[in-house]
Amino acid sequence: MQKAPEKNNHNGVTKIPMKRGLALLAGWLLGTQLQAAELAVVVDDLGYSLERAERVLALPDAVALGMLPFAPMTADIVRRARITGHEIILHQPMEPLPANRHHAARGTLTVDMSPEHFAAQIDEALRAVPGIVGVNNHTGSRLTQDADAMRRLMGHIAARNLLFLDSRTTADTVAYAMAREARIPALQRDVFLDHVASTEAIEAEFHRAVAIARRRGYAVIIAHPHDASLSYLQRTLSRLPDGVTLVPLTRLISRDRPATLARAENPASPHRSLGQ
Question: What pLDDT does 275 receive?
Fold first, then answer.
């Protein structure tokens, strides 16, 4: 006959045997620690080095490629990415702070462009990178603060049914808000993996992204094709922590998950893109 649970003689509270209680506690803690978490990784600034791009293409196909539209190797890398199945986004140059026209990338969108010039620039960039799933900003700390410019950009993105990823090169960006206003599927960068391109700093930022993903369910990492970054991703993405899954960028959009499109809880990161 099964023994009835013991009761406290004073208040009738059921006692749980110590071993069983410890097992239940351990199970609860394990479940909390292993809460499902999704990571999306984008490697930006691609188009100048085929060798670096090949290292990115050797990473899991959930990693997205951010392609500069007019870089010399862009067309070749895009063709290879379509074979490997990696998602591609247009890494669109936008006006930085401080503005320096002499060092601006070709095709940079600026605040003072006429609507016609702006449209011609973005159309040319979109044609240069076929098969994309979305757009994010390269630099842009000036342009992404300008609501009129962002509304103009979102009109072009909406017309092509693309997503928008705000790289957040400034805490004062309004790009994400303008994407939401235009009812465009939108995300924001959570972590720049390699704002400091040392192994120790990269590892710290990756763990910060994992912590965000465990707390909220997902996180978006932007990396750059530095040797240290690619070596770290090669080692780490093949052995992610328990409960953490690498997913394509579009997976975060396709989920019926209001938090993906609200992001109210995430504070502006102090880190800014290299080049702004």
Answer: 45
